[in-house]
Known about the structure:
about 25% helix; flat; single chain; alpha/beta; 4 strands; 3 helices; two-stranded parallel ribbon
Amino acid sequence: MVNFRSGGFKLSLIVTANCELRIGLTGFWFIDQASKYEPPLELEDFLGKKQLPLCFGFGSMTMPNPEYLTHYIVEALKKTRQGGIILSGWGKVGRTLLKI
């Protein structure tokens, strides 16, 4: 059985004649449209720095107190003087920040 939740892939690469397939696609990637994309200057500046940003990804993890985790991520980034990207997923990390 092949069970994918999301992704950009060529289905023929994974499907065999006797393969039970369960797929839930969340979207599509349009390569031809990607060449027309112009990112905002702020994003180019952010990604173009000498030190690349850290990425914090939480996928389908849920958190009882996402505000606390967000607070500690932001504080760690400040202390280390690094940029960061928070991919919150279902846990809502990065969507709210505690006022401490």
